[in-house]
Amino acid sequence: MQDIIRELERRRAAAQMGGGEKRIEAQHARGKLTARERLDILLDEGSFEEFDTFVEHRSTDFGMEGNRVPGDGVVTGWGTVNGRLVYLFVKDFTVFGGSLSAAHAQKIVKIQDMAIRNGAPVIGVFDAGGARIQEGVDALAGYGEVFARNVLASGVIPQISVIMGPCAGGDVYSPAMTDFIFMVRDTSYMFVTGPDVVKTVTNEVVSPEELGGAKVHTTKSSIADGAYDNDVECLVQMRRLIDFLPATNRDQPPVWPSFQDVEREDISLDTLVPANPNKPYDMKELILKVADEGDFFEIQENFAKNIITGFGRIEGATVGFVANQPMVLAGVLDSDASRKAARFVRFCDCFNIPLVTFVDVPGFLPGTAQEYGGLIKHGAKLLFAFTEATVPKITCITRKAFGGAYDVMASKHMRADINYAWPTAQIAVMGAKGAVEIIFRADINDPEKIAERTKEYEDRFLNPFVAAQRGYIDEVIMPRGTRRRIARGLRSLRNKRVEMPWKKHDNIPL
Ligand code: HXC
After folding, report:
1. 129 Cα–ligand 1 center, Å
2. CA-proximal residue: ligand 1, atom 49 (nearest)
3. pLDDT tens digits, residue range 217-233?
4. β pairing state of 297-299 and 307-314
5. Annotation: CATH topology of 2-244
6. Two domains, one topology: 2-244 and 267-425+463-492
7. CATH class belonging to 267-425+463-492
8. How many helices (H) and strands (E) does the chain have?
């Protein structure tokens, strides 16, 4: 018996060494942690339960029959994050470069199936060289099985991808179908085809970092939702993210203890909006003052900064904040901002996360670049997302809500539940200058008359009261009481139920 137990211990110890001492050293020399070190940080101490420790590939081509490593390049299993169940697969670059064989894929698929069945998020950590080249179509088939689970799990359980090394070829499409992708600066990159293929096909000379580093994907392509300086910081932040999310689409997000009384007013908000309507102010200040303890997990912080998206809590329960940012492009809606916010809104709606929307938007961005780039359809995505969302929706207009952007930004007409406006709100088809130049064109050469008309327009329309008189705004509120109003509103909407017309699924403008 002792011998059998010793044999298990020996085999387990061998598996835990992955590709061996030298490759582990190489991993560290690149500033990267090993798969097991990553697990240790991501999960609560001692909570990891490993599956398939002894799985090996079954390939015999290219001398592979003599080259087998238990685990086959991916560590899989489940554990807890602050006591809550998560399933995970973590690629082990020290074993065949983390490349995906049929057996490796089966390990991932097992985890995905269990997560769907048992109702818990899946976290995938990527650091790999793509399809196991020696396995040919078996590797491609393995990817296909993983992709299919990603699609089936979408909207059922949260799926998070963390890129902590190379991620190329087949490896990129699984993350692309998950809810969030996070990267590590300088050590991770993602692309469909690498620099060598790019050079052969297009003659472009580009480094991996320039082609698909964290900077590219968080600022240009918007593939990644955030990036961190190193593995440790990234994994700690993933724990923070998990704390905001429910286990499945049938569960409510967790409620954590909250220490900031919602009844306390914040007088500083009364002066957040400057007297001059063209002067910017930082909308993040409002979010931080409304969220419990100013704790805000921003999504896509460095892309389309004219709109802010992210998670916070009110009275301990998760909410999704969407807010125009007057500091960037005056908070205008353009294609990128619309896409970014639409995807975030849809995530929140999938997972029962109420939406809190702050509006200060001068309209949609004019110009050929935007129109040629499909602004109509991109803007429609956000309109569609807000309208189809059945989670509690509370909107507060702080200043401008002009034109189509007024409708889009979770207005009453887009089925928002509670619509507030600050006294500084201006709700109209457009700003005074543009409006007067159109409707009083005959007076355009008479500055006195134009000034008079402008004043008339400002007095009539640039306030919240016309909308409030019609019930499009439920109440004009004091800025200082915004957190209390929203908290009470969310409490009142806790049992919200909405019947949707029967459909297989919608056809959102993609
Ligand atoms: C088998 C692989 C491998 C792969 C790496 N290795 N990628 N083995 N299949 N795809 C092995 C290497 O042979 C090496 O083994 C070890 O992993 C470490 O790799 P290195 O090249 O030494 O490391 P590094 O210099 O850091 O380069 C990492 C890398 C490079 C950039 C990822 O390995 C690379 O370019 N790999 C190939 C990437 C690729 O083209 N993959 C196929 C994509 S096509 P030894 O024993 O020497 O240490 C694809 C199609 C799927 O995925 C499509 C589905 C839709």
Report:
1. 4
2. 169
3. 999 999 999 999 999 99
4. antiparallel
5. 2-enoyl-CoA Hydratase; Chain A, domain 1 (3.90.226)
6. yes
7. alpha beta
8. 19, 17
